[in-house]
Specification:
mainly alpha; ABC transporter involved in vitamin B12 uptake, BtuC
Length: 284
């Protein structure tokens, strides 16, 4: 379990889990789950286009991720970008279908991007993965307070000069970077699971933003580590365990929250109230 290729898998999945846990907190808080699903799946078309013209598939993946983020942020209305997201993913997947139909060569590396190649990560891929992951973390640290305020109280944020569309664009660009970093490792389907499940579960366990973010990272790490270990011992796909553990964790968190707090207030209301309180304290 600790041969060189497995060590690479542990390290790469750890990087992805940490970044997904941090960025996933804001993905769930801002209601951007659909965008987090659309960007990785739509960016798959970029890999197909890159393969068609003979360049690195990761380059195509990154370009389509960034253009998808810009398109969703630009076309979306205030606090609503579901229509723009749907149009973006339809256009990108349509282009992907076109690119694949224009090539006569079978490109397994393209299709592997759907489910990732955790056990196939080479040592040379670790540094770029870590570098992009570090950029994402630094971006979230830099954007933390305005992004949090615009997520929970957009009107107050606007009154303080924080433009909602700028925050939306900045955040979606971070999600695009996460896509570029994570898809080659865990695939388009699993990065969506890691962005959503741990953060959603963490929000049910705590109302404090920073605590929820830290707990999201812990849950994401436990998820990927457990998935790799179970996959190694059972010879079953890692993706199955990532999805199953994520679903079970979220179900447990919702049951725990319902039992402790009852139905008096919704989790969203409690979490947003705590986030606002934290911002007010920081501003005083």
């Amino acid at each position: 379990m600790f041969s060189q290729f497995m060590i690479n898998a542990w390290e790469a999945s750890t990087i992805v889990a940490v970044v997904a846990g941090v960025v996933g907190f804001f993905t769930v808080l801002r209601g951007s789950s659909f965008a987090a699903h659309a960007l990785p799946n739509g960016a798959f078309a970029g890999a197909a286009g890159a393969s068609l013209i003979g360049v690195n598939t990761i380059l195509g993946l990154g370009v389509f991720s960034l253009f998808g983020a810009i398109g969703i942020a630009s076309l979306g209305r205030r606090a609503r970008h579901d229509v723009a997201t749907a149009l973006a993913i339809v256009v990108m997947l349509g282009l992907g279908s076109l690119f694949l139909s224009m090539t006569t060569e079978y490109a397994p590396e393209i299709f592997s991007l759907l489910f990732g190649e955790v056990l196939g990560v080479s040592s040379s891929e670790l540094l770029p993965t870590a570098a992009i992951g570090a950029i994402c973390i630094v971006a979230i640290i830099f954007l933390y307070r305005p992004l949090l305020l615009s997520s929970v109280m957009p009107d107050v944020a606007e009154s303080r000069g924080i433009k909602g569309h700028r925050m939306e664009l900045a955040f979606l660009l971070v999600v695009a970077l996460v896509t570029t970093m994570a898809v080659p490792v865990v695939g388009t389907l699993l990065i969506f699971s890691l962005l959503i499940s741990p953060a959603a579960a963490a929000r049910s366990f705590t109302n404090t933003p920073l605590t929820a973010m830290g707990l999201s990272v812990v849950i994401a790490l436990v998820t990927v580590w457990s998935a790799i270990a179970l996959s190694y011992t059972s010879n079953l796909p890692i993706g199955f365990f990532v999805g199953a553990i994520g679903a079970v964790t979220y179900a447990i968190s919702r049951g725990w929250a319902a039992r402790r707090h009852g139905r008096r207030t919704s989790p969203v209301t409690r979490h947003r109230g705590s986030a606002v309180h934290a911002l007010v304290e920081a501003s005083d």
